[in-house]
UniProtKB/TrEMBL annotation:
Residues 41-202 form the Ferritin-like domain. Pfam families: MiaE_2. This is Ferritin-like domain-containing protein. It comes from Orlajensenia leifsoniae. It comes from the Bacteria.
Length: 238
């Protein structure tokens, strides 16, 4: 059985932001019959982007500096654009986005409420981890969608701002106050389990499956590996 929370040696040095490198392409796993129908896939993915935008907007509204507010507005704009483009895919299938998203709203709203965090820094870690993991997972899942939808969805979700403003703001905060590192690392470890449950819920017949189906374990392993790299870039233990 796959471990949700990879173990790592606790660091004692002050957290450091590693230089930004080109993003590594997410491995696409052939999910086959595990991929949901196109409309449910698009509805859940679109609503997740809307929730991620709301989290970024909340972080922007409560940011400690004007510079942070301005930087976060860029990330929020990118995320809202992803939502709009996914909604356009739904409309192209002659469906109303709000109706297609509605079945997923209660669970995703509950996820957001449970993962917002108690402080601005926890909210920022939530933005970094949940957006990264869920974008990666839906890109992987999109490979089995028909009629060119999958490639368009992958292109939509792969878009990133030139600068990862959330990670940069967190890195600066940790350098300024190294005591933030331990509680933020702990909060990040909690987020992984909740986020993986959301990812797993996107699979067809998810409720009928065991904790981790062997056929999809590589995708979850990839998510954990990418998450670990994000935490490492901040000097935090995943």
């Amino acid at each position: 059985m796959m471990k949700w929370f990879p173990q790592g040696r606790r660091r004692t040095e002050a957290p450091r932001r590693q230089p930004r490198v080109a993003a590594v392409a997410t491995t696409k796993v052939e999910f086959g019959e595990l991929t949901p129908e196109t409309l449910p896939f698009l509805g859940q993915a679109a609503y997740i982007q809307l929730e991620l935008f709301e989290n970024l907007a909340r972080a922007m509204a409560t940011a400690p500096t004007l510079a942070d507010k301005a930087s976060l507005s860029t990330a929020a704009r990118f995320t809202l654009r992803k939502h709009h483009r996914l909604a356009e895919e739904i409309r192209a299938l002659d469906e109303e986005p709000a109706l297609v998203m509605a079945p997923f709203a209660p669970a995703i709203d509950a996820f957001r409420a449970a993962t917002t965090g108690a402080t601005w820094h926890e909210l920022m870690i939530t933005n970094l981890i949940t957006a990264g993991m869920l974008d990666d997972f839906f890109i992987s899942l999109s490979g089995s969608l028909p009629d060119g939808v999958g490639s368009r969805v992958a292109a939509i979700l792969s878009r990133r701002p030139r600068t990862d403003v959330v990670a940069d703001a967190l890195a600066a905060a940790i350098v300024a106050d190294p005591q933030l590192a331990s509680p933020l690392a702990m909060w990040g470890r909690r987020l992984v389990g909740d986020t993986l449950l959301v990812a797993r819920s996107a699979l067809r017949d998810a409720n009928a499956r065991g904790p981790v189906d062997q056929s999809i374990e590589p995708a979850f392993t990839d998510l954990i590996a990418a998450h670990t790299r994000r935490m490492d870039s901040l000097g935090l233990t995943a």
